[in-house]
Amino acid sequence: MKPKNLKKLYAQSKDLQASVLNAHTVAVTSLTNPAANHIVTVAYAKDGTIHARCTCPWAIYGGVACTHVLAALEALAQKRGKRLSFWRSREDAQRQKRRLFCIKDHETQADGVWVTSRRSA
After folding, report:
1. Could you give the CA distance from residue 54 to residue 106 in angstroms, rounded to a whole number?
2. Rounded (10°) CA dihedral 76, 79, 81, 84
3. In a domain? residue 46
């Protein structure tokens, strides 16, 4: 299930605390309970596909690219000196002329959210 309001989710993800545990695992604070964390695991395929799983209810029931995943990906990118932008369609992402990735649904392999990467300022 692809998010409908990606800009709102991305804005919410900026308010979350993300702690990088290792190259593929990030603990992200919960929106509904700031005392709790959700664990996000990320795997990168050579073809530019990102497989991300989160422990939040929305992600467990098939949601792709929840706020926790967006926060986790941004935290991992910051470690590499990069910034990310998130897009609903491949066409919108390709217009940016940047490196392109796709967060896919790990069950159906359907395209979810497109990601572009650039160097931090």
Report:
1. 11
2. 20
3. yes
Quickly state the pLDDT bin for 108 (edges 50, 70, 90).
Answer: low
Count the domains in the chain: 1
How many CB atoms within 10 Å of residue 41? 16
| CA–CA dist 114, 49 (Å, integer) | 9
Q: Please name the residue that has the structure tokens 């790990």.
A: 106
Q: Is residue 81 part of a domain?
A: yes
Containing 92, the helix (H) or strand (E) segment is helix 90-94
Residue 1 located in a structural domain: no
Residues 103/77, Cβ–Cβ less than 8 Å: no
CA dihedral 61, 66, 69, 74 (to 10 degrees): 170
Please provide residue 9's backbone torsions phi and psi, each rounded to the nearest 5 degrees: -60, -45
pLDDT averaged over every residue in the chain: 90
Q: Which residue has the tokens 């217009």?
A: 95
Contact 82, 120 (CB under 8 A): yes
